[in-house]
Amino acid sequence: MADLGEIEELVLVGAGNMGGAMLSGWVAGGVRREAITVIDPNPSNSIKSLLDRSGIRHHVAPPDNIKAKILVLAVKPQVMYAVLDTLAPVIDENTLVISVAAGKTLTYFEERLGKLAMIRTIPNTPSMVGRGVIGAFANGLVTEVGREKADTLLSAVGQVEWVEKEADIDAVTAISGSGPAYAFYLVECMAEAGRKLGLDEELAMRLARGTVIGAGALMDGSKDDAGTLRKNVTSPGGTTAAALEQLMAEDGLQPVFDRALEAACNRSRELAG
């Protein structure tokens, strides 16, 4: 993996939730302040504070005196087309482009920026606290060095998983991109079931929330896979086994997830055009 301190001429376009999280991770990880340029017409107060404290260059529009070696696109998909039209001053044939915009294929960027080394990624919202999962695909123009630099930059906000086909990004989107919402909904469902069992609503939510957070921490610190951890807490004939008999029934949770992820994957393909 490349050293963050060796990154040069890194241009971040868009410093919203995801872009801001990456910027904070880069600064904390050791990217030199003078190597970073942020382009954002209206950064949040927290990002303004970070820019002021660190002395990172900030522009409301692409400047004409910088050529990006790495260009990270972190603007909303619905305004991407307008932003791309302004980027000519900061890119050349040697620029590595990294997109974190959902639903935008590499063909979309190639048609607007030309044939450049490009990486398409799909991060998820835990990236905002440095615990994200980021799916990534590189086109054929990305060198091994370029891939290592991208991996290092993306690792500042989470776990990076590379796929060999761009089409796999849709399945990645269905699992990890949208996945945090499934975990949050699981907490909601557990809490609602607890309320129906007679518990106070707020108590049920605290129990469900704490259990899911704790289970995640246990899995994170264990070498065992999820199935083994599940079996470890399941005593034959016990309460957990009784619950899992329902969840693992033929019409239980697995077919629900099959349908849900298929729907998410199909929608990702539709959005990508």
Automatic annotation (TrEMBL):
Binding site residues for NADP(+): 74-77
Compartments it resides in: Cytoplasm
Record-level GO BP terms: L-proline biosynthetic process
Pfam families to which the protein is assigned, alphabetical: F420_oxidored, P5CR_dimer
Keyword Membrane attached: no
Ranges for domain Pyrroline-5-carboxylate reductase catalytic N-terminal: 11-103
Domain Pyrroline-5-carboxylate reductase dimerisation: 166-271
Primary localization: cytoplasm
One MF annotation (Gene Ontology) recorded for this entry: pyrroline-5-carboxylate reductase activity
E.C. code: 1.5.1.2
Catalytic activity from the UniProt record: L-proline + NAD(+) = (S)-1-pyrroline-5-carboxylate + NADH + 2 H(+); L-proline + NADP(+) = (S)-1-pyrroline-5-carboxylate + NADPH + 2 H(+)
GO cellular component, one term: cytoplasm
Pathway membership: Amino-acid biosynthesis; L-proline biosynthesis; L-proline from L-glutamate 5-semialdehyde: step 1/1
Sorted UniProt keywords: Amino-acid biosynthesis, Cytoplasm, NADP, Oxidoreductase, Proline biosynthesis
Residues given in the record as NADPH binding sites: 65
Family: Belongs to the pyrroline-5-carboxylate reductase family.
Function in brief: Catalyzes the reduction of 1-pyrroline-5-carboxylate (PCA) to L-proline.
UniProt-recorded name of the protein: Pyrroline-5-carboxylate reductase
Organism, as annotated: Martelella lutilitoris
